[in-house]
What does this fold into?
Amino acid sequence: MIRVRRLSHSFGADPVLKDVSFSLEKGDFVFLAGPSGAGKTTLLRILYAALPLQTGEAAVAGINLGRLPASRVPLLRRQVGVVFQDFKILPRRSVEQNIALPLEIRGLAPRHIERRVMAVTRALGLQDRIRLKCGELSGGEQQRVAIARAFVVNPKVLLADEPTGNLDPELAYRLMELFKQFQAYGATVLFATHSEDLMRRHPGAYTMRLEKGRITAADWPGAGVFIDGAGRTVHSRQRQ
Ligand SMILES: Nc1ncnc2c1ncn2[C@@H]1O[C@H](COP(=O)(O)OP(=O)(O)O)[C@@H](O)[C@H]1O
Ligand SMILES: [Mg+2]
It folds into this structure.
């Protein structure tokens, strides 16, 4: 569902991702761990085609990101849900309008939109809030709206960039349960966080650690590149 091979990325002369390889199948859940500045957000942005693929290969939901024409980007985004740390919701619009937006962009019939929005708001415990403007909600509720908006399109792949970073631990754990549920529906989840505590809440997930743009540890056979004890780059078996 996500395949990355020997991906490198630089901003100007600064290398930010170095020789990153991994592959994830349907229903896999991976924590992307690593300190601030490690390259987590950059990797997610490349997978979402918010940044071009510079070096190496990558495919998401069967769509090759190499030389992806702008006209194919909407096709990719239809398969991929994204949750950012800073929500990116529209404060003057209601909860319902915010969640319906991706479906409206896709041109779904109002009847379908209403049904999907109702199902997702119920799943996220937002049904009492749907008429409120998002700007009137608490931070935790706003984050739930952002997650609902990613879930509502039923994406095959969910990319989450420290989505619980600004939340208190109790709320973060509850949101973690929602992501697990999403995985149980068959989605592939790549979840960036530097909270060890949160990672312990999902012991069945894989973990991949990025440091200074390199994968320094990963705990499943589909993950590719490691630096071994002697500082050498080691390519592990790639899943076919
Ligand atoms: N648009 C950009 N232009 C230049 N440098 C950037 C840009 N985005 C990120 N960087 C740099 O790339 C490195 C990795 O950043 P980032 O991917 O945001 O890491 P993380 O999400 O792990 O904190 C950092 O040194 C950051 O300053
Ligand atoms: Mg980041």
